[in-house]
Amino acid sequence: MIFITGPLYSGKRTFANALPGTRIAEVQNLAKDADDLEKLADKLAAYDIVIATEVGGGVVPVDAGERAAREAAGRLACLLASRAQCVVQMFCGIPTILKGELPPC
Asked: Does the UniProt entry include the keyword Kinase (predicted)?
């Protein structure tokens, strides 16, 4: 699995939906509703590519529920990164490889 994280899009689906074996995950929504983050990470790790939006930056929410969802999303991202062969952080369209290496095109 290749795990890509960062501010990838602004609420719209990207070209990655067309790639077979890809899952774009709204990690904050998946994580907050998950009973078991380990099982969810295992399920998502079955995809070839998992793309998750970054939710950890910026102002910390005042609402306790939103803070808990943000914490769960961060924990899910860490679990996914540990399962991935390659982890890429995108920022302003520039990829930074944090773990492993990208396969050849």
From this structure: yes
The string of pLDDT tens digits covering residues 33-79 is 889 999 999 988 888 888 887 777 778 889 998 888 888 988 999 99
Distance from C-alpha of 93 to C-alpha of 95, rounded to nearest angstrom:
6
For tokens 């990690």, what's the residue? 27
The three-class DSSP label of residue 25 is: strand
pTM, whole model, 2 decimals?
0.79
Tokens matching residue 33: 């509703």
On whether the CB atoms of residues 95 and 103 are closer than 8 A, the answer is no
DSSP-derived 3-state class of residue 2: strand
**C-alpha distances out from residue 2 to 76, 80, 96, Å:** 15, 9, 13
Average pLDDT of the chain?
Answer: 80
